[in-house]
Amino acid sequence: MLPDPISSFISDHVESFVQELAQFLSIPSVSTLSEHATDVMSAAKWTLDQVNRCGFSGTIHLTDRHPIMLARSPEVPGAPVLLIYGHYDVQPPDPLDEWKTPPFSPEIRDGYIYARGASDDKGQLLTYIKAIESVLGAGQKLPLNLIILAEGEEEIGSPSLEKFLKDHRGQLLADAVVISDGSQFAHGIPAVTYGLRGLSYLQVEIRGPRFDLHSGSFGGVINNPAQVLADILSKLKNPEGTIAIPGFYDDVLAPQDWERREMASLPVDEQALKDYLGVSEFAGEPGYSILERRGARPTLDINGLWGGFSGEGAKTIIPSRAGAKVSMRLVPNQTPAKIDQLFERFVTANCPNGVSVNITSLHGADPVLVPRNTPAMMAAEKAIEIGFGKRPVFIREGGSIPVVNLIKKHLGQENILLLGWGSPSDGAHSPNERFCLEDFQSGIRSAAALFHELVNGLSLK
Ligand code: BES
Ligand code: MN
Ligand code: MN
Fold it and tell me: Which among 27, 240, 314, 414 is most buried, taking Cβ atoms within 10 Å?
């Protein structure tokens, strides 16, 4: 149960909470674009100010790129410690002309707030701060010790976080970790996530002649980098949809039978999903359901392609270079280091003479599975039931959050609660990203309930 005064405080203040969310969303904290570095810093300072107002002591830590905000609640002696992680950086908003209202001018329409970062992850991160504020505002004390770790580099693969966790280990040790940076199973079906895919993200560049050439004068006598690139990319996958890189599946842990049965029991409205995506057919690895393909099987995707002329009309050239960005989603027990190596070997072996290939790893994240039957998980289940009014289902998500394995590795903590308040139709990374205000409120309620449930759950250990 959520104590009445806290519940009322949330109901009475939800409008001002939404106003604050809108302020947070107005900061264009795009981590991958260097011209937005000062905005990422502003977002860090905004969160610091928010937690300071809750009586936390917080600090902004500078890194090689974007700052990390770390804050701690006043000590509650003998009570468990919960580490809350979130990120205040966002993905680039383009294509801009597809947004109905500008990405950094939040607008509320039909119960949703629209802006880049609304769901991923500013809206979800803020639920914890507003939950803390609501406990205190209701005249109560926090029942446990809280640490908030918020970063500005998640969307670029969290490059500074590993060193930070090592250097600040003593300040980060906790009995459980909670991360709300994902989604419910479907809108109105809250979930606890117990698995995330990992990621290998690479860039491939093919170079041929010193400059673009007349395709009439030189066509037919040299290898065309764009053609070479297309040939190589087409070899990465077999026609039926499996990945053709030798060794790619060697370390893949197959989903267990019970897990496959459980996934099969989750309601998937395939037609509704097709309609949302605007596609007439699904594709992918044969023998696996849509849910298995999205969460429990590895994939390879081309994220972008360039080379030669793509402006209006025709230009008869052989481009001097061509390139692609390719990402592979990984599952336990694949590792980005090994997959990068297999990819590189395969691409190099398939590159013909007369052109050169250059492969760069842009970032990686380890796949993860977290234990399901722990007291912390049960506390999370109860908290969600209180906040959303429904028992959650257990799911594996297809996205990646680099911090999860870093926490396992450097803090030795496996009690990691992945509780997404968003929804798969929020449009994370897409134009018109949004967050349902009802979910924002349910998230705040669940977060506040989690504080109380964890105190009971963790002291039962
Ligand atoms: N919040 C997402 C991760 C996510 C997506 C979790 C969907 C669960 C469901 C996160 O911000 C993200 O986008 N991560 C990147 C990885 C990173 C290394 C750039 C991703 O998954 O592409
Ligand atoms: Mn995120
Ligand atoms: Mn993201």
Answer: 27
Atom number, ligand 1, closest to the C-alpha of residue 197:
21
pLDDT in the model for residue 458: 81
Q: Please tell me the distance between residue 181's alpha carbon and the centre of ligand 1 in angstroms.
A: 8
Atom of ligand 1 lying closest to residue 155 CA: 19
Query: Amino acid letter at 272?
Result: A
CA 188 – ligand 3 centroid, Å: 21
Helix (H) or strand (E) holding 82: strand 81-87
In this prediction the pTM is 0.94
Tell me how far apart the alpha carbons of residues 125 and 20 are, in angstroms, rounded to a whole number.
12
What is the share, in percent, of the chain residues with pLDDT greater than 90? 98
Tokens, residue 200:
């290998």
Write down the pLDDT at residue 87. Answer: 98
Mean pLDDT rounded to a whole number for the chain: 97
Closest listed residue to residue 132, CA positions, set 27, 189, 47: 47
Ligand nearest to the CA of 121: 2
Q: Which pLDDT belongs to residue 241?
A: 92
Q: At a CB cut-off of 8 Å and minimum separation 6, what does 164 contact?
A: 61, 63, 68
Ligand 2 centroid–CA 351 distance in Å is 36
Report the 10 Å Cβ neighbour count for 333.
Answer: 14
Nearest ligand for residue 362 CA:
1
Testing ligand 1's pocket by substitution, the residue of 125, 401, 435 carrying the most ligand atoms inside 8 A of its CB is 401
Judged by DSSP in three states, 294 sits in helix
Closest residue to atom 15 of ligand 1, CA basis: 400
Instruction: Work out the average pLDDT over 74-93.
Output: 97
Q: Six-digit token pair at 239?
A: 């026609």
